[in-house]
Design brief:
Layout lengths: L7 H5 L5 H19 L2 E2 L8 E2 L1 H12 L1 H16 L17 H6 L3 H18 L7 H23 L8 H5 L4 H21 L4
Antiparallel strand pairs: 1-2
Helix pairs in contact: 2-3, 2-4, 3-4, 3-6, 3-9, 4-6, 6-7, 7-9
């Protein structure tokens, strides 16, 4: 097992004080909320295509396992409180939805965000975010986790014969694109960090 490496945020902000840590958590939760605004509804699915997974994967990689997961828990708490941070879904009146949104068809994906950020962060803490291939693998693992949580939960709301078309197949091209962009961004960001 590889020793724990610095995360990108630790390398950029070494010795950050607690206020900086809180601002990072809040800032990355808002990054996920902003990425939720990139939302394309699919007429045959309760799940829209969004930019969220891109932001979730970057959050985990940049903040590390614990802080990445905390940032996503904060994101979910903001949504549960009724703040308009989730992707647009008409049945919930737009970007809000509160607790009902966490218990609705997309709730499993939202829960998967927390675990995906933790795992991608854990891999980043072992240096997987430094090279393109390992960064892409970390992103693929994180993306798979989102589906491992999202699909079984979605199965409660859609017939079994529509599950894959409602919650997986239409999202693969976009997820591959987001995965590649995140995998390219991480090693590029590390090249900008001054070596000490």
């Amino acid at each position: 097992m590889r020793a724990r490496a610095l995360t990108l945020s630790q390398a950029v902000l070494p010795g950050a004080v607690p206020l900086h840590q809180v601002l990072l958590l809040v800032g990355f939760s808002w990054l996920v909320a902003a990425a939720a605004r990139v939302s394309i509804p699919l007429p045959w699915s309760e799940v829209p295509v969004t930019g969220q997974t891109f932001a979730v994967l970057l959050t985990g990689a940049a903040l590390g396992s614990r802080r990445g997961a905390l940032s996503l828990l904060l994101y979910l708490a903001q949504g549960a409180a009724g703040l308009p941070v989730f992707a647009f879904v008409a049945r919930y009146g737009g970007y809000g939805g509160g607790i009902a949104r966490l218990l609705g068809p997309t709730g499993g994906y939202l829960a998967g965000f927390v675990v995906a950020a933790f795992v991608v962060g854990w891999l980043a803490e072992r240096g997987w975010d430094r090279r393109l291939l390992t960064a892409a693998l970390a992103m693929a693992v994180g993306n798979a986790i989102v589906y491992l949580f999202g699909l079984p939960w979605l199965a409660r709301f859609v017939p079994a014969d529509r599950l894959l078309i409602s919650g997986l197949i239409p999202f693969i091209p976009g997820d591959l694109t987001k995965l590649i962009l995140a995998a390219l961004a991480l090693p590029a960001a590390w090249r900008l960090v001054p070596r000490k």
